[in-house]
Amino acid sequence: MNIGKIRLFKKGFRAYYLLVVSIIVLTFAIQSIMQYSLKKQRSTAMIVNLAGRQRMLSQRLLNEVYSCRYHNCDYAELKLTLNKLYQMNGILQNGSENLGIPKLDNTDIMANFVRLEPYVNWFKWNLSDLKRLDEIKFNDMRYRVDRFTTIMNGIVLQFQKKSEEDIKGMRIIEMELAIFSVFIVLFEIFFIVNPFINRIMSQKKKLEEIAWHQSHVFNSHMKNIKDLQYVLRVEKVPERQQEILKFISEELDHLNGVSKNMVSALKKNDDEEMPHKVILKKVEDLLDKYGIGTSNKVTDDDKVHSEGL
């Protein structure tokens, strides 16, 4: 991928970018799931609370009807309680955007609401007309309230179990993502960070070895060559000059050997196939296969990385 003259996702670094991006994505995913889980728990808690209030409203209806029959009647309270019960029965089934309650999709709970529907309709049609309250048989009213309460108890229990299952599922997903995040972090530590540290230490050791060759062996041979050059200039005997030239040639051979040792120290372990290189190479091949982050100008580069370090 090219932006002007800047090349992103350079070959050799793409696997590292992929791992870093994966950590960011996993962190975002975990936070999103946690927020979703909290929102889900809030919604479920509200549903259970409203379902529990339905039982209380049915009991209040019974008390209001009793008061109207034998004591002073508060028609406004009776009407308000009836409207709340009927309204909440619809919200629990169809959901509410304002309250953040989703539409019910559990078939078992819906089946209980179907069983509950005749009693809700009976309350609505018989208690809506306040003039007909005297015609309602109190035992009949109490029977329907008891049946309503029994079914609502089952619905509340079902909502609670559904909530526990949803929370359990969310926790499993969060745990799996957390474990995967830890795995990614450990992967980076063992196959990227630790190899880089080892590479730096190895290069430091190479530089120390080269410095030793430079300061001791190389300088020693150079001093010998300079001394032999001085002797060669002042020596007049041809036989001795030939002997000195032989010594100079030997010193040059030694210098050549020192140079080879220095080059060998630089290349030491460069060609060794490390485990992290094998894995990262596979990741790079996979990225090449799907054309992710490809560029016409590529450099092969674990060696370049190490030199950059």
Question: How would you sum up this structure, described in words?
Answer:
The chain has 309 residues and is mainly alpha-helical. The protein has a domain at 2-184. It is 80% helix and 1% strand. It contains seven helices and two strands. The protein has a two-stranded antiparallel sheet. A hairpin with a 2-residue loop joins strand 1 (2-3) and strand 2 (6-7). The longest helix is centred in the middle third of the chain and has 97 residues, at 138-234. It is rod-shaped and about 150 Å long. The two termini are 24 Å apart.
Task: Please describe the structure with a list of short key phrases separated by commas or semicolons.
disordered C terminus; disordered N terminus; two-stranded antiparallel ribbon; 309 residues; 7 helices; rod-shaped; mainly alpha; 80% helix
